[in-house]
């Protein structure tokens, strides 16, 4: 079985309606990638906050009442019974007990993983923006070339 190779088409050969369709598709893709980038940035910020929260746990706070974060804006009082271990959300509703060092390592690995994805996504967004700018320039040139003969007659 042979795989179909993507066919390359010169955008200058397309008419304005086709160029409009391509532009709309590029704008949708760019919007999707931009939204994904923002969501990844938020996730990265949450993991960085987790690293900070883990580092704030001190052995001298054992059996003292502390505020436990349930969300970014909701805290409940609780007692720190074991300052050397924390419960870590590893995803899809699963939690494991880890030492503070293991938890920090886990969250730092998440931050680094997201950083590499952000870098890749940023490159993709830049390429899409360049493609969109090129397409807009081609559309403007076609519009000018279509309106130029009508002015001279």
- Give the CATH class: Mainly Alpha
User: How much is the average pLDDT?
Assistant: 88
First-to-last CA distance: 56 Å
Number of domains in the coordinates? 1
Low-pLDDT parts are none
Biggest sheet strand order reads: 1-2
Coiled coil: 9-43
Protein name: Prefoldin alpha subunit
GO cellular component, one term: cytoplasm
GO molecular function: unfolded protein binding
Notable characteristics:
Prefoldin_subunit_alpha; 4 strands; Helix Hairpins; two-stranded antiparallel sheet; 153 residues; Prefoldin; chaperone
Report on this model:
- This protein is an alpha+beta fold.
- It has a single domain (19-135), classed as Helix Hairpins (Orthogonal Bundle).
- It is 61% helix and 15% strand.
- Helix 1 (16-55) runs antiparallel to helix 2.
- This is Prefoldin alpha subunit.
- Belongs to the prefoldin subunit alpha family.
Describe, in short, the structure shown.
One of its GO terms (cellular component) is prefoldin complex. It contains 2 helices and 4 strands, in the order αββββα.
């Amino acid at each position: 079985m042979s795989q179909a190779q993507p066919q390359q088409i010169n955008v200058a050969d397309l008419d304005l309606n086709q160029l409009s369709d391509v532009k709309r598709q590029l704008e949708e893709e760019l919007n999707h990638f931009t939204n994904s980038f923002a969501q990844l940035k938020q996730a990265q910020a949450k993991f960085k906050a987790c690293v900070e929260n883990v580092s704030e746990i001190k052995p001298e706070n054992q059996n003292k009442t502390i505020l436990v974060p349930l969300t970014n804006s909701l805290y409940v009082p609780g007692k720190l019974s074991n300052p050397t271990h924390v419960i870590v959300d590893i995803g899809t509703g699963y939690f494991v007990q880890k030492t503070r060092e293991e938890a920090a390592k886990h969250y730092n690995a998440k931050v680094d993983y997201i950083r590499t994805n952000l870098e890749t996504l940023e490159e993709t967004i830049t390429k899409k923006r360049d493609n969109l700018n090129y397409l807009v320039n081609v559309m403007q040139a076609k519009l000018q070339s279509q309106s130029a003969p009508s002015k001279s007659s």
